[in-house]
Amino acid sequence: MKEELSLLEKNKKYVWQPFTQMKEWVENDQLIIERGEGIKLYDTAGNEYYDGVSSIWLNVHGHQKKELNEAIKEQLDRVAHTTMLGLASVPATELAEKLVEITPSGLNKVFYSDSGSTAVEIALKMAFQYWQQIDGNYGAKNKFITLKNAYHGDTVGSVSVGGVDLFHQIYKPLLFDSLKAPSPYCYRCSFEEEKDKCNFSCIKELEKMIKKQHKKIAALVIEPLVQGAGGMITAPEGYLAKVRELCDKYNVLMIADEVAVGFGRTGKMFACEHEEVSPDIMTVAKGISGGYLPISATLTTDEIYNAFYDDYASQKTFFHGHSFTGNPLAAAVSLANIKLFEEEEIIEEMQDKIELVKDKLEDFKKLSHVGDIRQQGLMIGIELVKEKASKEEYSWEERIGVKVCMVAREKGMIIRPLGNVVVFMPPLCSRKGELVEMLDIIYDSIIDITE
Ligand SMILES: *Cc1c(COP(=O)(O)O)cnc(C)c1O
Q1: Annotation-wise, does 322 bind a ligand?
Q2: What is the distance between the alpha carbons of residues 156 and 162, in angstroms, rounded to a whole number?
Q3: Which of 63, 88, 191, 265 could disulfide-link to 201, CB 3.0 to 4.6 Å?
Q4: Mean pLDDT of 107-125
């Protein structure tokens, strides 16, 4: 007779978890989440936890948000999915109009896919093909320039423009080459002359690289304001605008990857707005559906779109599309998400919360193993160091970030680190009291592990 396995046993027997060493997973106890409500998650044993990473940076209005649930149900009663290959759909059309309306000016065309990685793949192919198809001698513009510590997804193309060695090193032989400019990592700035104050040496280095090779560079890819997965690395004020200037000066397209920073995360709807930047191509995913369903979009300008717009025989079609491109359920919930941003004044409401978090984080600075605290809106990274004065890092084997997050879990909050950086990414709807409680848990967890 077949033995009935527990749910956890089944998980360990059949599932290969993402970004996970399965030996460690299988040898340890694991949570199985059964439901969520507001900013709390509940496991199968009935324990509750704050969703302190917004289910990996996605969630905006909390779980089981009435308006979002209803938008999906209403669409479900019409149709769950129809293809966009040769057909249009109602919600994907309406969402495109809305996206053009809310994104930086000039982004007038919307190309859908279903994850941040695919949105980036599309941006890369679009930029590459654009230069092949416009008049003039631009065929050699086929390379990308990106930043160290960049993260743009896990598919082969998006990994090729990534710069997090831990994730990307092994795949090197599979990847196409991209130019890697310095990261605007002020806390660990590698430029000697920057010791006392920032002179934008990283930008000067970037300019040198672009100046030398712009004839070969199709586009620059950047996470505006914050390099997320690289460790919540916040760029100094003015950095993004300077990058835009360089792209203009050297005729290089600017691809802004707003997958993590978009949809309110940084305190404005899109991070580019902080420096009044309009990219040539912009990718959005994560928060687009309020964190409900997988959908993403790559937006671009009329100029790029028009380079593909011709008679079929000219062979300028953009041959790209996924089975679930522009899924109607996901598009419907995304529309409802954007409506909630407006109705509940999410961005306005966030401003006080951002200040509150900033004040609370002041206390963390006194801790002997907190080296740097980086915040942009409700996107926070706390970098732990072995020794404060020398900024000596904990070795990766110590897994200090993981340890802190496991203690936080015992205290009732789910968070996930990036190496030695403890990440706090609460859902944007979190109330002030909840933010304080979550920050207290992080504070106590850091003390438990490091003091
Ligand atoms: C998460 C992320 C991606 C990848 O998105 P997926 O939906 O996980 O494929 C791409 N770019 C940035 C900046 C991200 O944070």
Answers
A1: yes
A2: 10
A3: 191
A4: 98
Residue nearest to atom 6 of ligand 1 (CA): 116
Q: Which residues pair with 425 in a beta bridge?
A: none
Atom of ligand 1 nearest to the CA of 154: 9
Q: Are 307 and 348 in contact (CB under 8 A)?
A: no
Work out which ligand 1 atom sits closest to the CA atom of 286.
Answer: 7
Span from the CA of 153 to the centroid of ligand 1 (angstroms) = 5
Ligand 1 binding pocket (C-beta < 6 A) is: 115-117, 120, 151-153, 223, 228-229, 257, 259-260, 285
> Is 1 a residue whose pLDDT tops 70?
no
Between the CA of 96 and the centroid of ligand 1 the distance, in Å, is 20
Q: How far apart are CA 163 and CA 174, in angstroms?
A: 15
Give me the amino acid identity at 409: R
Question: In angstroms, what is the span from residue 100 Cα to ligand 1's centroid?
Answer: 21
| Domain 31-61+345-450: which CATH number of 3.30.230.10, 1.10.3720.10, 3.90.1150.10, 3.30.70.20 | 3.90.1150.10
Residue from 120, 149, 222, 296 whose mutation best tests the ligand 1 pocket (most atoms within 8 A of CB)? 120
Residue that is written with structure tokens 């004044």 in the block: 345
Atom of ligand 1 nearest to the CA of 285: 7
What's the gap in Å between 260 CA and the centre of ligand 1? 6
286 is in an annotated binding site: yes
pLDDT at 311: 97
Distance 257 CA to ligand 1 centre (A): 8
Tell the CATH topology of 70-343.
Aspartate Aminotransferase; domain 2 (3.40.640)
Q: d(Cα 351, Cα 449) in Å, to the nearest integer?
A: 32
Per residue in 240-252, pLDDT tens? 999 999 999 999 9
415/381 Cα distance (integer angstroms) = 11
Give how far the C-alpha of residue 2 lies from the chain's centroid of Cα atoms, to the nearest Å: 44
Q: pLDDT digits over 18-37, tens only?
A: 999 999 999 999 999 999 99
pTM as predicted: 0.97
According to DSSP, the β-strands at 40-43 and 379-384 are: unpaired
Cα(116) to centroid(ligand 1), Å: 4
Q: Taking the domains of the chain in order of start, what are their residue ranges?
A: 31-61+345-450, 70-343
Distances (CA, A) of 55 to 40, 123, 291: 10, 25, 8
In this structure, which amino acid lies at residue 145?
A: I
76-93 tens-digit pLDDT: 999 999 999 999 999 999
- Beginning with the edge strand found earlier in the chain, give each strand of the sheet holding 143-147 in spatial order: 109-113, 296-300, 281-284, 253-257, 217-222, 143-147, 179-181
